[in-house]
């Protein structure tokens, strides 16, 4: 279980000259403040990642305890699109960076942060992940804060018991699944009731391991609405091979996958009911609630016969940005600098199973994640295809449909049509 910032940020009191205990006494809710700070200018931080809300609530309290002259307010509930539409966005955002967030960047709604020293500290390979999304010319609109890396979670004890080595090729993966089946062990725990688990796991891992996701979407956007049979790339042509393999792998799942949700999968894996589970670090805390001592490791899903093709799925789990329409841009920059202090940023990542985004950031130390560090270090990663597709296209549901028996060719043709329709509108 993660410790709170009050426990893990003694460096704040030492470096900035106030006691961490003071933070608890100055904790502020979204709409109010204590009487002693009523005259201070307000800066609003929008941060809505559910599992990180308590952590950032205490970071905001720590910032307020500094006596900078600003009062930070932690907003977790506002409608982001509505705020931008009303020209009343938050002063500072800190949330997952994907295609939905890139919409604001592309339209120039986010201010330029290139002059901040923290922007220059981002590792080039991490900045490259931001650059895969549509940007605004001449601007550095977001600063990555935390990277989440995900791959196959595996039960080390079951692998050892069945004499299975971590697979590094597609053939080795299928052989491992066969060995587990012969030993009476379910090779793969899958959960089809929650569509997002199919999308971010089976689909993203299979696609990212089988083709260059960044290049595919770059070419796709350059084509506009041309997704016919003569187009250089299309979902029908490029996704067919990896998703065919996905369906082959999915056949090794638990028989009741169609009736299980995310929580059920966490419980089943924690009980040792399957050897592999396609989820990221977000599942580890839930698994630990049932079996804190489970020996878990990670490995990239192999989709080719070349071990050099192995890559892990990543996403910019949190990124900082300041809207052009921010009411207190100077205050937002001051709060951003506080959050981006290496001592605070690195502690957040260590406590929340994230990977550092700065050049020279400390490596992960959690034994459940260390096997992914070398891939992150050398940029052997990809962003999930699901994060590059607008939410107006129900990609999650399409992937769920595939594992439940939908026709692959028909689904991919529908994806082509959906993408072309959006491209014509834009």
Count of domain modules: 2
| Average pLDDT over all residues | 89
Portion in beta strands: 5-15%
H/E element order: HHHEHEHEHHHEHHEHHHHHEHEEHHHEHH
What is the SS-derived class?
alpha/beta
How would you describe this protein?
The chain folds into two domains: 42-148 and 315-378, Periplasmic binding protein-like II (D-Maltodextrin-Binding Protein, domain 2); 150-314 and 384-424, Periplasmic binding protein-like II (D-Maltodextrin-Binding Protein, domain 2, 3-Layer(aba) Sandwich), CATH 3.40.190.10. The model is unreliable at 1-37 (pLDDT under 50). Helices cover 43% and strands 12% of the residues. 44% of the residues are buried. The protein is built from 21 helices and nine strands. With 426 residues, it is α/β, with parallel strands linked by helices. Strands 1, 2, 3, 4, 5, 6, 7, 8 and 9 form a nine-stranded mixed sheet that branches. Helix 11 packs across helix 14 (240-250). InterPro entries: Bact_solute-bd_prot1, SBP. This is Extracellular solute-binding protein. Pfam families: SBP_bac_1.
Short description:
The protein is of the alpha/beta class. The chain contains 21 helices and nine strands. This is Extracellular solute-binding protein.
